[in-house]
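RECORD TYPE: inverse folding
INPUT: structure tokens
STRUCTURE:
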């Protein structure tokens, strides 16, 4: 949960002449907190509170994941979450996929502004550019992991991958004027001579008549 200002502060003067200020905000756990200020002079107190509110808003903006460019956010996500939990070869593959199949298309867009249409366009561009189906599928899977975690942590209000399915392989290849042949079409057919050789080997016996 993001920190949030609840007001810009309240000011009052105590009976001893000192000025008191109070700013209320919610912390990252959603709990209401208070920041208090005091000064002998009202203008000094107001300046303190103005600076505090300005710095607070800047910190919130800098920590708002949804406003960061996707490239910056995903790089950080890979380092913090994926590097410790996957094999190094897998991590290197993730980085390579992000660098070549994701960042050039939506890397500069704020994470929170990425839409399902953006993802669809990215996958279509892969297809039209002649990328192998498996290459595009890796980018799709990486984006799905990335946005799922951001959404679960409350960093973004919506998950743009929730309703996006990867294009079926046959359709993907058909769009590239390629053919996806079933495995049975690739079975080697033996000639009659080769079949006789296989049968001869299969029925070989030892001198005592026992099969090899």
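DESIGNED SEQUENCE:
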């Amino acid at each position: 949960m993001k920190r949030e200002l609840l007001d810009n502060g309240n000011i009052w003067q105590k009976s001893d002449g000192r000025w008191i200020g109070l700013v209320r905000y919610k912390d990252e756990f959603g709990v209401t907190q208070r920041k208090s200020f005091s000064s002998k002079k009202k203008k000094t107190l107001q300046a303190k509170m103005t600076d505090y509110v300005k710095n607070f808003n800047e910190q919130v903006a800098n920590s708002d994941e949804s406003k960061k460019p996707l490239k910056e956010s995903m790089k950080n996500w890979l380092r913090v979450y994926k590097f410790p939990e996957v094999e190094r070869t897998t991590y290197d593959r993730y980085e390579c996929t992000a660098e070549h199949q994701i960042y050039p298309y939506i890397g500069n867009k704020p994470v929170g502004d990425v839409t399902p249409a953006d993802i669809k366009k990215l996958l279509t561009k892969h297809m039209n550019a002649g990328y192998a189906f498996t290459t595009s599928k890796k980018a799709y899977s990486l984006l799905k992991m990335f946005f799922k975690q951001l959404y679960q942590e409350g960093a973004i209000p919506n998950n743009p991958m929730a309703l996006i399915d990867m294009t079926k392989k046959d359709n993907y290849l058909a769009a590239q004027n390629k053919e996806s042949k079933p495995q049975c079409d690739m079975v080697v057919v033996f000639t009659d001579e080769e079949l006789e050789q296989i049968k001869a080997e299969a029925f070989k016996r030892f001198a005592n008549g026992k099969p090899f």
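NOTES: The mean pLDDT is 88.
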